[in-house]
Structures are given as structure tokens and as C-alpha cells.
Amino acid sequence: MPSTNFKNHVLVTLILAFLFCPLVLRAQGPKTIKLNEPNKERGLPVMAALAVRASATEWSTRDLSSQDLSDLLWAANGINRPDSGKKTAPSAMNAQDVDIYVFIKDGVYLYEAKSHSLVEVVAGDQRSLFFQPRRPRPATAGQPGQQPPTPPAGAPRPQEQVTMAPVVLLLVSDISRFRAGNDDQKKEWAALDTGIVSQNISLFCAGIGLNTRPRSGMDRDKIRELLKLKETQLPLLNHPVSYKKQ
Ligand SMILES: Cc1cc2nc3c(=O)[nH]c(=O)nc-3n(C[C@H](O)[C@H](O)[C@H](O)COP(=O)(O)O)c2cc1C
What we know:
Strand order of the largest sheet: 1-6-5-4-7-9-8
Number of helices: 6
CATH class: Alpha Beta
Bound molecules: flavin mononucleotide
Shape: globular
Distance between the termini: 78 Å
CATH superfamily: NADH Oxidase
Order of helices and strands: HEHHEEEEEHEHEHE
């Protein structure tokens, strides 16, 4: 027969385990990075930003500063009216269907606009999923049979270079957030909403002198698998972002 002392000891251990269990579980939750307060005073006036907006073809490998990353995400699709929870990008029926996954060297993070923070989804560098081998040019594009100039041996080709950018933003629309409409309509709204977030990114980058390019090219199947996306979540566009190449 166990002694009363032993029974008490077991009881105390169980009570302590019960009390501290939530703390332990919380400590093991996903890694979260609180972003800096966005700086809403910076950048070129909107007409000057429009005047220099262009899709980049070259990428610096230098990491973005934490302020630049914070401002980029807020401009892309952050909350600009906390009272209503509405965002810098409009969305059909205010469905707020576009999520931004942030691919950086140490992992993939989901941008949480409400808390202006990043929540880790997958660890490790996954940026190579945005490399898409160049498709053969259709006969109608450019001179028939003309190939783009071959880069010097060992140099990354333009499409490969996007994986050198320190940040790639992936725009994913979740069409289950549209409360009305048939599938075709939902896909159309998804594309429109994603295009608007994309333009926010392009204009922000033009305004503060960062390089970016909207791209539909990416390995969608592997991205779906990696991020465990639902059927209703559509990865539609990606944006490599970097400083200007010196
Ligand atoms: C919906 C969309 C998809 C695009 N997909 C790609 C792509 O997969 N790869 C790429 O290099 N550029 C892509 N682009 C960039 C276009 O090639 C670029 O915007 C176009 O050449 C015009 O150049 P500009 O943006 O400098 O005006 C895409 C642009 C848009 C709007």
C-alpha cells in the first residue's frame, strides 16, 4: 500500500502539472515576430511614385531592415482604419480574402494584420519555390526563333535571380471568405483583390526605392503542399522585394 506521504506527493505533482500545462503549451506555440510600428510619413508623393514604378529584374541579397519589412506589409494589406478593421487594399464585399505569406531566409511567415506581426508557418529557406524555368517563347512574341541572350557561365538566369531577393511575398486569396457568389465570380474577385494588394506593394516599393516585380510564375503544387493550403486558398501572385542592386 502506498503511504499517505507518497499519495500527497503524487497529488501535488498532478496539480502543478495541470496548472503549468497551458504555459508549456503556449511556450511551444508558433514563433511570432511583432513588427515595428509602421511609419506612415515616408516615401515619395503618390504621383512621383507612379512616375518611377517599374518591374525589377535585378535583386540585391541584402536583408531588408525590420522597419522596411514592417512598412512594406502594412502598405500591402495592413489595417489603416482600426475602428472598422478595414485595410489599405479594398476587397470585394470587404471579404479580406488576401493573405500574405512572407518567405525569408529562416522560414515562411503569415502576416497577421490585426496584431501587425508575423507568425511562423514553416521553418527554413523555401524561396526556391518561386523559380520557374522560362517557358519557350510563343512564335508571335518578338522575332521568331530569337532566344534571349545567354547569361555568362555560372551567372543565375533572370528567373532564377528572384530567389536571391531577401523577401518574397506570396499573395493567397481564400475564396471561402466570400459570403455570396458562384465559384467563377469568387475566382474573379480573388484575382481582382489580389491585383490591388499587388499594386499597393509595387507603389510602396517605388515610393521608397525598393525593387519588386509582380509574378504569377511559381511552383504552385509544392507551395500548396508546403503551406498545407485548403482547396479554397489560391496562390495567385508573388512579389520578390529587395534593395536596389548596387
Ligand atoms: C498578373 C501578372 C503576372 C506576372 N507574372 C510574371 C512572371 O511570372 N514572371 C515575370 O518575370 N514577370 C511577371 N509579371 C511582370 C510583367 O512581365 C511586367 O509587369 C510587364 O513586363 C510590364 O513591365 P512593368 O511592370 O515594368 O511595367 C507579371 C505581371 C502581372 C501583372
